[in-house]
């Protein structure tokens, strides 16, 4: 039986993920930014959605407030981990739809800072390459992934 050719990794099938290399980030459509983002209180403080003085408050109360505000999807009381809400297309709340860049990059959570060293498949990435546009000159240029091939 012939193996099936996979053009890009599938987020839900970690066996399709590729071994991570730093060059991937510049040519990707930010597929890692569609994964659930787990954060702790210190991440929420860094992002600026929780004040430092709230650090001593009951995390369950913080979670309720952030769920009401549409920032947190769920809270695991046992582990103290919050999961950030995602947009309807599964993009992170902080991912710019047009540029596909993080709008809080300098303040991003530790989960994002440490990807792909940690996560569902450490050392691997759900890399999805940007589409390539063929211009009339016949040269290939990287695009943001929203324009189909032109001939």
Approximate strand percentage? 5-15%
Instruction: Report the total helices.
Output: 3
**Over all CA atoms, what is the radius of gyration?**
18 Å
Biggest beta sheet attributes: 3 strands, antiparallel
Poorly predicted ranges (pLDDT <50, ≥5 residues)? Answer: 143-151
Mean pLDDT score, rounded?
Answer: 84
What's the arrangement of strands in the largest beta sheet? 2-4-3
- SSE pattern, N- to C-terminal: EEHHEEHEEE
* Structure summary, number of beta strands: 7
End-to-end separation: 35 Å
Alpha-beta content class: alpha+beta
Shape: elongated
Helix percentage: 10-25%
Organism: Pseudomonas graminis
Pfam families: CxxCxxCC (PF03692)
Protein name: YkgJ family cysteine cluster protein
Structural account:
This is YkgJ family cysteine cluster protein. It comes from Pseudomonas graminis. The chain is 14% helix and 14% strand. With 151 residues, the protein is an alpha+beta fold. The chain has a domain of 79 residues. The strands form three sheets. Strands 2-4-3 form a three-stranded antiparallel beta sheet. Strands 1-5 form a two-stranded antiparallel ribbon. The C terminus is likely disordered.
Q: Short summary of the structure?
A:
This is YkgJ family cysteine cluster protein. The chain has 151 residues and is α+β, with helices and mostly antiparallel strands.
């Amino acid at each position: 039986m012939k193996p099936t050719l996979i053009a890009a990794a599938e987020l839900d099938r970690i066996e399709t993920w590729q071994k991570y290399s730093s060059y991937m980030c510049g040519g990707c459509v930010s597929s890692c930014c569609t994964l659930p983002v787990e954060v702790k209180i210190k991440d929420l403080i860094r992002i600026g959605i929780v004040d430092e003085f709230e650090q001593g408050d009951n995390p369950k109360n913080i979670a309720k407030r952030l769920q009401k505000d549409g920032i947190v999807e769920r809270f695991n009381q046992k582990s103290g981990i919050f999961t950030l809400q995602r947009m309807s297309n599964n993009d992170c709340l902080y991912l710019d739809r047009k540029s596909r860049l993080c709008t809080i990059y300098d303040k991003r959570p530790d989960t994002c800072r440490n990807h792909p060293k940690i996560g569902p498949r450490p050392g691997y990435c759900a890399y999805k390459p940007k589409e390539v546009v063929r211009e009339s000159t016949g040269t290939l240029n990287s695009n943001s992934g929203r324009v189909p091939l032109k001939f």
